[in-house]
Specification:
CATH class: Alpha Beta
Oligomer: single chain
Strand order of the largest sheet: 4-3-2-1-5
Largest sheet: 5 strands, parallel
Strand content: 15-25%
Length: 119
């Protein structure tokens, strides 16, 4: 049985290193053969909105790395519907294919992973 984990992105993409740290955890874990699922909730949904750039934040532009997730067999990738709705973001604005699911459905999926990292 392979190791399994879920990384929940809750923070906006820039302003702190939390989002970048979460992305690095996903990439490193996938490279080590861990079965990684990813969820975007709260302000974390901003991480996968197309057309963003770090600007003058001094942080690395890690957003293009999200396009690598399908190639690294990272998935499933979930986005919480209510988080998108509260921020006025449509599914077509997302830069990668993700399954948009409700908060209750996402909560049920959390129980399926022995390791859950929330950043």
């Amino acid at each position: 049985m392979s190791a399994r984990m879920l990384v929940v992105h809750r923070r906006p993409p820039y302003g702190t290193s939390h989002a970048q740290d979460a992305m690095e955890a996903v990439l490193a874990s996938a490279a080590l053969g861990v079965e990684v699922a990813v969820a975007f909730v709260d302000d974390g949904v901003w991480q996968i909105v197309a057309g963003q750039h770090p600007g003058d934040t001094g942080l690395k532009d890690f957003v293009p790395a999200f396009r690598l997730l399908p190639e690294l067999d990272v998935g499933p990738i979930w986005v919480e519907r209510e988080s998108l709705q509260r921020r006025g973001i449509g599914a077509r604005q997302l830069l990668l294919p993700a399954q948009v699911i409700g908060a209750r459905a996402l909560a049920r999926r959390l129980d399926l992973y022995p390791v859950v990292i929330e950043l």
